[in-house]
Design brief:
Blueprint (H helix, E strand, L loop, with lengths): L10 H15 L15 H6 L8 E13 L3 E7 L4 E7 H4 L1 H6 L7 E10 L5 E12 L9 E4 L5 E4 L5 H6 L1 H7 L1 H23 L3 E2 L5 E2 L11 E4 L4 E5 L4 H9 L4 E9 L11 E10 L3 H20 L3 E4 L2 E4 L5 E4 H9 L8 H10 L10 H12 L8 E7 L15 E9 L2 E8 L4 H16 L10 H9 L4 E7 H9 L18
Parallel strand pairs: 3-5, 8-12, 16-17
Antiparallel strand pairs: 1-2, 1-4, 2-3, 4-5, 6-7, 9-11, 10-11, 12-13, 13-20, 14-15, 17-18, 18-19, 19-20
This protein binds one RNA strand through helix 1, strand 1, strand 2, strand 3 and strand 6.
RNA sequence: GGAGUGAUAGCUCAAUGGUAGAGCAGCUGCCUUUUAAGCAGUUGGUUCCGGGUUCGAGUCCCGGUCACUUCACCA
């Protein structure tokens, strides 16, 4: 005991260490090396056949114990779910005595036969029970019942959000639905990869540490490389590197990776987040619209086997053709303002009228973005593509082939939330240089998120980039939508937290 | 960054400015098909941290920490 170090020893931990010592005295290894498992809890239950004797071996963590003297019931959870175990003293002998020293939280292995109890629960009648890992910390003990209407009711649920995020392992042990969300997250990303791979798009990896950050409007994290003695930035987007690869002759590439933006945190923002970017040569944004639409539909069908989702009270159908909404036309319709011809003064006046905070909007492009966000965005429930963005808001997008002052860009929206951003990529290096220079002017005006000029990227464009369609999808937000989660922290396993103390 | 709300036993929560409590978990008994098992008994507290007011502070005041909600910014 004296050589045991816990930062917060209490009676419960002391008792568990005592049990750990007693078990060792009984010749039990409290930290076993392996255990052969024949199947998982929920599979055992669904494969039960009362006419066939089935012997199984399962392993899992004890979440409940009901001791009745010379017999006991315990529930264990494994990766798929939970199952009840029945143990009898006269059948287990010394193993039963050891079981008396087991606690909620311990990991155990069981061999036994499947049966149905008097009260109807399919369980495992153990003829062997071994301790696999002794849990030295008390695990919280929520309890649940199924009420008359068949709904699950949980008592003393582990709900403290701070503890759940900081100690996600406990959250995963105790809240089944949390694990389900992350399994879905994995499946969604797999389905996207499969779709992209099957479409002949090559998965690549580009630098996270960049001497010049670019590809998005955001403030970066800065770090320092000791040997080179230079600052390096954690990437805010993959865009400029992926386009260099298109210049290099790959004609379709994608990357799924973490981006980092040094900005505020809230329900929809984590400092590091997962982004998918796709670039396909010889295609334009019209082609990309069909591509996104089909990819999302494919994900819905393979992971959820449906295209209609109930999201915040709205029935959203990812199976229908996505409607196109023109930013310029819709704003003209609602506000009477023609973005293409309006003067700066007139734009400012209208922005104020609709409640745009002009102290934050440093540029014309930002004002237009804000105005759209307030006036039109909340109206877009069904999946749709917003098109016809003014050139000011999109420094990396190609000018529209027929409409002046407009770029070939679209953003996908679902129930008023943006889920993707794409353009016909700007590949004219002279135009690109002018756009960067215009961004520099915004930066001088105080726009900290304005993009910086990347000379090597311009040089790459000068060698010639084929016409290219590009796409970005914020994966975390897409997963929030599809799994009906209200906070980005509920789709990120270990969200960024401020350290305690 | 602003505003609001909150932090009490391992977990979930109570407590007019007046002895910090309950349920679960734990511990001691009894109990060989229970299931929020049951019955009897019992342990457990830096009330987030630091000041202040008061005869007396979990409670009121000030400062701080962390979280959540919301606004701003952004994806």
């Amino acid at each position: 005991m004296d050589n045991v170090h816990f930062d917060d020893v209490n009676e419960l931990i002391k008792r568990r260490i005592e049990e750990y010592n007693l078990l060792k005295e009984n010749g039990v290894n409290p930290f076993e090396y392996s255990f052969n498992v024949s199947g998982y809890s929920t599979d055992i239950i669904s494969n039960y056949d009362e006419n066939v004797e089935q012997n199984v071996s399962v392993a899992g963590r004890i979440i409940a114990i009901r001791r009745m003297g010379k017999a006991s019931f315990t529930h264990i959870v494994d990766v798929k779910g939970k199952i009840q175990i029945y143990l009898k003293a006269d059948e287990l002998g010394s193993q039963y005595d050891n079981f008396k020293l087991f606690d909620i939280g311990d990991l155990i292995g069981i061999e036994g036969k499947v049966f149905r109890t008097k009260t109807g629960e399919i369980s495992v009648h153990a003829y062997k029970v071994v301790l696999l890992t002794k849990s030295l910390r008390p695990v919280p003990t929520p309890k649940e019942i199924i009420d008359e209407s068949g709904n699950k009711v949980v008592f003393d649920q582990f709900t403290d959000k701070e503890l759940r995020y900081r100690q996600r392992y406990l959250d995963l042990i105790l809240n089944r639905e949390v694990k389900d969300v992350f399994v879905l997250r994995s499946k969604i990303i797999s389905a996207m990869r499969k779709y992209l791979d099957d479409a002949g798009v090559l998965e690549v990896e580009t630098p996270v540490l960049q001497p010049i950050y670019g590809g998005a409007s955001a403030r970066p994290f800065v770090t320092h490389h000791n040997a080179l003695d230079i600052p390096l930035y954690l990437r805010i987007a993959d865009e400029l590197y992926l386009k260099r690869l298109i210049v290099g002759g790959f004609d379709a590439v994608y990357e799924i990776s973490k981006d980092f933006r040094n900005e505020g945190m809230d329900r929809t923002h984590n400092p590091e987040f997962t982004m998918l970017e796709v670039y396909v040569a010889y295609k334009d944004y019209e082609w990309m619209m069909d591509f996104v639409e089909n990819m999302i539909k494919h994900v819905c069908l393979t992971v959820f086997e449906k295209t209609v989702f109930e999201i915040e009270g709205h029935s959203v159908d990812f199976g229908q053709k996505w409607q196109k909404v023109s930013m310029v036309d819709s704003l003209k319709e609602k506000t009477g303002l023609d973005l293409l011809t309006v003067s700066d003064e007139e734009l400012l006046k209208t922005a104020i009228k609709y409640g745009v905070d002009i102290s934050q909007a440093k540029s014309r492009g930002k004002l237009i973005d804000e105005l759209f966000g307030i006036v039109i965005q909340p109206l877009l429930f069904q999946p749709c593509f917003v098109v016809d963005y003014p050139v000011e808001t999109s420094p990396l997008a190609k000018k529209h082939r027929s409409k002046t002052g407009i770029v070939e860009r679209f953003e996908g929206f679902v129930i008023g939330r943006e889920i993707c951003n794409a353009f016909s990529e700007l590949n004219d290096p002279i135009d690109q240089r002018e756009r960067f220079e215009s961004q520099l002017k915004d930066k001088e005006k105080g726009d900290e998120e304005a993009q910086v000029l990347d000379e090597d990227f311009l040089r790459a464009l000068e060698y010639g980039m084929p016409p290219t369609a590009g796409l970005g999808i914020g994966i975390d937000r897409l997963i929030m939508l599809l799994t009906n989660q209200n906070s980005i922290r509920d789709v990120i396993l270990f969200p960024t937290m401020k350290p305690v103390k």
